[in-house]
Write a structure and sequence with these properties.
With 288 residues, the protein is of the alpha/beta class. 27% of the residues lie in helices and 17% in strands.
């Protein structure tokens, strides 16, 4: 069996994709309590702890180490808050790889990480690894969502990795719930009336639109991203939790036993599931 450890794993969306490729996650490490609770329905050992304080040798050996460390400091949105500075979380995954030296490691983040040469040098220049960088990997190859990501794969053997190919994409109208219970918040009304500095991004399922990138901030303000719905009195509405999850490729069998705000945050911070499935399929090919 291929032993895989997952770091900064959030609610486990990337791990779901890897599991869909026929693999198992033996251990995951995440600091957020709610995300850990959601992850536990996937099976495997879920460790709720601060990776920056965790000793490397206090974990099981792994053939593959996967990291989806937070992207906030690498994203363009950080410019608004003058926070686009990078951070040191990547060093803690670097520490794990450098000490444990697994057969393979995988990193997922936003394309903006490429603008941080120190981060890229650390994650692509590890001795004894052949490294490939895929950027951008577009979620819209599979899903009705605009979402670009960076994938780094390092392996001890030279290998010809296959980039994701065009798939039969789920359409926006396919993810819509029928007769959902929707609460139109005051923020939605205010934004539609032009009371904020920007208007909402409204996606039309009948026009085969793509939804904008799912973001964690949706848990604070559902007015920024709306979907057209003729059954709604205003003609538009926020996405439901299940619709938001479907935009990320999360199967309906995955339960969000938490508040809606916690669910939106976990989903927005997650990795599109089909990206994880593609990575899992490539891991399978490597070890065949």
């Amino acid at each position: 069996m291929i032993a895989i450890n997952s770091y900064f794993s959030g609610a486990g969306l990337f791990d779901i994709g890897i599991m869909q490729a026929g693999l198992e996650i033996q251990q995951s490490f995440e600091i957020d309590k709610v995300c850990c609770q959601l992850q536990r329905q996937l099976g495997g050992e879920v460790n709720e702890q601060d990776i920056t304080q965790k000793l490397v040798f206090n974990e099981r050996p792994a053939d593959v180490m996967v990291a989806t460390y937070p992207c906030t400091k690498y994203s363009a949105i950080a410019d608004i808050h003058n926070a686009r500075t990078g951070d040191d979380l990547f060093l803690h995954f670097f520490r794990h790889v450098a000490i444990k030296k697994p057969e393979m490691y995988v990193i997922e983040n936003v394309p903006g990480m490429k603008k941080f040469p120190v981060v890229m040098e650390a994650m692509t220049r590890l001795p004894d690894y052949y490294v490939s960088v895929f950027c951008p990997v577009e979620a819209e190859a599979w899903l009705p969502q605009k979402r670009s990501r960076l994938i780094i794969i390092g392996s001890k053997k030279s290998f010809i990795w296959q980039a994701p190919t065009s798939q039969s994409r789920t359409r926006l109208k396919d993810i819509m719930e029928h007769n959902p219970e929707i609460k139109i918040t005051e923020s939605v009304i205010n934004r539609l009336n032009g009371n904020y500095r920007d208007m909402p991004i409204i996606s039309d399922p009948e026009a085969d639109d793509l939804a904008p990138t799912c973001v964690a901030h949706y848990h604070k303000d559902r007015s920024t991203r709306l979907i057209k719905d003729r059954a709604c009195p205003m003609g538009v509405r926020p996405y439901t939790v299940r619709e938001y999850a479907r935009l990320q490729g999360v199967p309906d069998s995955f339960r969000f036993d938490c508040t809606d705000n916690e669910a939106y945050k976990a989903i927005g911070n997650g990795v599109a599931v089909p990206v994880g499935r593609w990575v899992g399929e490539e891991i399978q090919r490597y070890f065949q």
